[in-house]
Amino acid sequence: MADPRLPARVRRLFRLDAERGRDAQADADDELSSFLEARSDDLVARGMTRDDARAEALRRLGNAPGEVLRDRLRRSAARRERRLGIREQFEAVLQDIRIGVRRLLREPVIGAVAVLTLAMGVGTNTAIFTVVDNVLLRPLPVPRPNELVAIGKLTAVDGHTTGGPRPDLFSVPLYRDVRDRARTVSALAASGTAGRLDVRLTTAGEFEHPNGRFVSDNYFDVLGVRAQRGRIFGRPEGGAAGSSPVAVISDAYWRNRLNGTGDVIGRDITVDGVKLTVVGVTQPGFTGDIVERPTDIWVPIEMRPALEPHAPPMMDRGTCWLLLVGRLGPGATLAQARAEFTSLVRTALVSNASSPDEAARYVHAPVDVVSGAQGISWVRRSFRPALMTLQVGVGVLLLIVCLNLANLVLARAVARGPEMSLRMALGAGRGRLVRQLATESALVGALGATLGLAAAWWGSRALVSAATADSAAAAARISWPVMVFTIAIAVGATMCFGLVPAFQASRGDVASPMRSLGRTVGRSRGNRVPIGRLLVPLQVAMSLVLLTGAALLSRGLRRVETQRMGLDRDHLLVADVDPARLGITGQAFLTLGDQLIARIGSLPGARSVTYSENGLFSGRDGDAFVAVPGFTGRTSADSLINYDLVGPGHLRRIGATLLRGRDLDERDGPAQPSVIVINETAARFYFGGTDAVGKVVYFDPKVPSTVVGVIADVRDHSLGGPPARRAYTPYAQQITDAPHPSMSLEVRTRGDPALRVSAVRAAIASVDPELPIVAVEPLSVRVRESIRQDRLLVSLSFGFGIAALLLAAVGLYGVMSYAVTRRTGEIGLRSALGASRGDLLRLVLGDGLRMVALGIVVGVPATWLAARALQSQLHDVPATDPVSVVVAVGVLVACATVAVWVPAWRASRVAPAVALASER
Q: What residues contact 429, with CB distance under 8 A and at least 6 apart?
């Protein structure tokens, strides 16, 4: 027991056993007694009696009772003790950090491998979670986003249809009907696509094409967005068409394109030939309600007729292009809003229907009413499965990283057994050793997290850009939730690969295995890093899961890429033009089409030319409800068919296969009976085994359309999923019903279509120099873009699989190298007793491959479960696809064999005398 009369600092210096609280009290008592005794002795020497001297000494201390003084001193001593304790802890942490840094510098290769390995795990997880947060989780940067309600098809960011009212995409009259009757929301706003904006900031400036949106006058009020400069839209913008030539711009557009000038309010900009005055700049951080595409300019809905004078009439109930967002009123719930808006929309559609048949279709029409907290997104629906798959994949990869680092740290910790034993012999407790080892792991974790966060900042932007092909969409922001996530996984990884080995290495008998290492052949098996031998099979199992998943996804993508499309995709060039921008409609539109066909068809290398409304893989498509005599659908969706308006000879000229009947051609003019061609899927669905040619389909209840041909299914909009039911109608017969017709030219060439891009552009310009050309590119490029997300998923999955494979190999190599080192004496003894090098190779190889086999046995069932979860993204490749499993197992076994063979070969080369001498 420590002498209580020794000063506390001395006791702490030699780490003598004493309780801090009892030390503080003893120090206070000793200090008071020493002071009174010394003062009394001094006063006695001056001639006072002992009692008077003690009384005088107490008086000089404030004349307080001895217990009060003792209590004061005790409190003071306790405070001093706490301060010293905190200082000691701080100094101890600094000391641990210094020791950890010195050790990392002393072992730079091991330290670099550990930091980079953790950075890979943390960086990939953070990058994927950043995209998940931006696309799937993050609410709009507006006040109380959970109060927002969105009505309409939220994936129809650029939705615009004509012909008839819809329950999922709203016309202006339908919006006003619903707005005036809604009671569950305090206000209801609308927004719609602005198409391609041609903007000039100065009179002589070049055109630029920022992202725009038409919005109602209460749009910003409903979202709760305020202006940092000027004002937002209000009642003045709710007037007659064309009466509000104003615009609100985003903070980012103001700073990036207008240089953040102070005189922006009142400045004029020219949008689609119309002069608009900037009246406000939104608050920083707000870029609209479209998640993946920041909005630069907002224009009142009332200005659409002025900006798009040739567009369909805005007040027509068949012109559907708006999505709605409202804010729940006090006490209202999303369920109540869903019930109310479903009733209001159906009632408005039925009451304004043009016929009883049309009204009957709207009685049970589905109305989409969901939470608007996360805004509008077309990427969210298509990208969600891939993101979830990637998040799980990188989570498994991070776990493999932790297992690998646990092996590394454990091997280092056991190798430091003599050091740990010496520290414990000198008085260091187990907690002190654990803290030191944990601090070293924390340093690796901090460095790895820092590098991982830097990699995630770049990787998340590259990932979103690669997934969406939109540079604006690449603005994936690393927010506070992402930062917290990064810190959490870094701490979790540190705990995983740091603390468990630290406790293992700091056990009281850590020196025992070192003393008994390799003494006998019989005991050698029990002394081989049991935790490491358990972690390696887990790494192998998880690596097998990632490798098999990558193989399955790759085979699914290959199946999609190589399937028959039903057209000549290798020789088709697609050119999108916009005649409606110039007001070209009706017969003038058809004349323009004939001129373009003739001019482009005369180009060298052009085999045939045609055009259509929606084009090939353009992102546009049309659908309509049809009535088929003799057919009764189970649901309203059975009467829905996709359609396209096409030019003469369209199907033959794109390389489609005609199965029965004829193609649409020049005889199918405006004055001729309505005719259509349908695909094989539609013919089989509506007419069963009978011949569809000559049968009648009703798009309009009063106008029968005769089926004149059936073609083999053509994949002209998507490679995934089963072929859609599709009909093709002559553009000439529908042109009077298309007030805003669009045109996509399909040019079939000889040789590589990419070589004809410039010539086609020039030919279009020669017909009409003012005709806007939106895009000219080979169909193969569009096809690849349509499966961009699948290719990205496969690429990343392969990256994760290869990383997991390398990590498993490194882990296996490390464990086997350490095991061989520990068994040097055994190997030498076996060699001395006559074992050949081949025998030693088989011994060590068998030992390592048994761990691999155990990992494969565990991994195969896990692989099957993971493949079942991926089934929707495998494109009909079975989850139990034997080729994928065999390839993954083969690659894993080959890599593992190499990782085990190297230390086995090295062990077989050790001379017996050297091996036995190492055990002395």
A: none
Residue with tokens 């052949």: 521
> To 5 degrees, how large is the angle CA 655–CA 657–CA 660?
145
Task: Mark out the alpha helices in 375-479 (DSSP H runs).
Answer: 379-415, 417-425, 430-468
What residue type is 855 in one-letter code?
Answer: G
Residues 466 and 376 sit within 8 Å (Cβ to Cβ): no
Token duo for residue 269: 């900009």
The Cα 104–Cα 124 span in angstroms is 24
Residue appearing with tokens 């000219």 = 776
Look at residues 793, 750, 756 and name the one whose alpha carbon lies nearest to residue 777. 756
- State how far the Cα of 597 lies from the Cα of 418, in Å rounded to an integer: 86
- Count H helices and E strands in the chain, helices first: 30, 22
Q: What distance in Å separates the CA atoms of residue 560 and residue 719, rounded to the nearest whole number?
A: 6
Residue type (1 letter), 805 = L
SS3 418: helix
Paired tokens of 371: 């939470």
Whether the Cβ atoms of residue 627 and residue 639 lie closer than 8 Å to each other: yes
Query: Residue 654: phi, psi to the nearest 5?
Result: -90, 0
Nearest-5° Cα angle at 138, 137 to 139: 115
Q: Report the SS3 class of residue 776.
A: strand
Rounded Cα distance, 335 and 266, in Å:
43
Q: Which residues are CB-neighbours of 440 under 8 A, at least 6 positions away? A: 96, 99, 100, 103, 104, 498
| Cα separation values, 518 from 83, 240, 417, 824, 892, Å | 49, 93, 15, 7, 31
Does the pTM of the predicted model rise above 0.85? no
List residues bridging with 705 in a β-sheet.
Answer: 697
Phi, psi of 894 (to 5 degrees): -60, -45
Q: What is the mean pLDDT of each run of 10 residues along the chain (920 residues)?
A: 43 41 58 69 76 71 59 67 73 76 72 73 75 76 92 84 84 93 94 84 76 92 93 79 86 89 89 90 90 88 86 85 93 93 93 85 89 82 70 74 69 63 68 73 77 72 58 53 72 66 55 42 41 71 84 84 86 90 86 93 93 86 86 83 91 93 90 92 90 90 90 88 90 79 91 92 92 89 82 76 77 70 67 72 79 86 79 76 87 84 74 55
Distance in angstroms (rounded) separating the CA atoms of residues 698 and 743: 25
| Helix H or strand E segment including 57 | helix 50-60
Q: What is each CA distance from 859 to 388, 797, 817, 898, in whole angstroms?
A: 21, 17, 24, 20
The Cα 582–Cα 773 span in angstroms is 12
Give phi and psi for 462, each to the nearest 5: -65, -35
Give one word for 15, left, alpha or beta, with left for phi > 0 and alpha for psi -120 to 50: left
Residue with tokens 């019930």: 339
Beta strands in 93-249 (DSSP E): 148-151, 185-193, 199-200, 212-215, 227-230, 246-249
Are 69 and 32 spatial neighbours (Cβ–Cβ below 8 Å)? yes
Phi, psi of 551 (to 5 degrees): -65, -40
Buried b (16+ CB within 10 A) or exposed e, 686-699: bbeeeebbebebbb
Question: Amino acid identity of 36?
Answer: L
- What's the Cα-to-Cα distance from 167 to each of 170, 178, 222, 314, rounded to whole Å? 7, 11, 22, 17
Q: Please, are residues 793 and 390 in contact by the beta-carbon 8 Å criterion?
A: yes
CA quadruple 266, 269, 274, 279: dihedral, nearest 10: -30
Q: Are 252 and 287 in contact (CB under 8 A)?
A: yes
Tokens of 75: 């409190």
Taking Cα atoms as reference points, which of 583, 606, 3, 653 lies closest to residue 309? 583
Please provide residue 573's backbone torsions phi and psi, each rounded to the nearest 5 degrees: -115, 130
Contact indicator for 209, 295 with CB cutoff of 8 Å:
no
